[in-house]
């Protein structure tokens, strides 16, 4: 049975295993051990997704950054705000945005609600750019620009975060270095991009115009 199978047959199989485990009938020691591990994984997944959903709701109600971006999205285009979902992800990432599917928050990779705030704001900037600038991710310049703006505006590259990670060296350039690094990594992962060298070149080409474009914010707090 696939992990987390929600089909009727999957749910029946999970009920059958649970009954056998509780009664001790019809289950070998190996099957009991496998059931205990599956139960542990299910409980862990439920907790991470539940925590993500709780933190998402808190941010939608109390985070100035998130509330501001939600308000801006309501003012542009069709006024629609993308659905924001919490799921477990296989990739090593905090979240993602898709024009049709909405915003994904990767519950199993988010350490706390403050990281969730950064990731959610980052993805809301992508949603804003898609509406306002008609971003085409097949165009590497478009991709680079929205990644620069999302890392710059979300707060994920704030200087205090970078100091915790890398110390006080090169203090004056930490913010820009973080934004550039994140943009290059994201563009490198684009199937249209040949390699990191091309990603760096594209990010460099659009850097000045995109890094200085703080819309919809008046200024950036670093």
UniProtKB/TrEMBL annotation:
Keywords, alphabetical: Hydrolase, Membrane, Metal-binding, Metalloprotease, Mitochondrion, Mitochondrion inner membrane, Protease
Transmembrane segments: none
Recorded superkingdom: Eukaryota
This protein's GO CC annotations: mitochondrial inner membrane
GO molecular-function term, one example from the UniProt record: metal ion binding
Main location (coarse class): mitochondrion
EC numbers: 3.4.24.-
Enzyme class (EC, first level): hydrolase
Cell location: Mitochondrion inner membrane
Membrane association type: Peripheral membrane protein
Family designation: Belongs to the peptidase M76 family.
Function text: Has a dual role in the assembly of mitochondrial ATPase.
Protein name: Mitochondrial inner membrane protease ATP23
Taxonomic classification: Eukaryota, Fungi, Dikarya, Ascomycota, Saccharomycotina
Gene that specifies this protein: ATP23
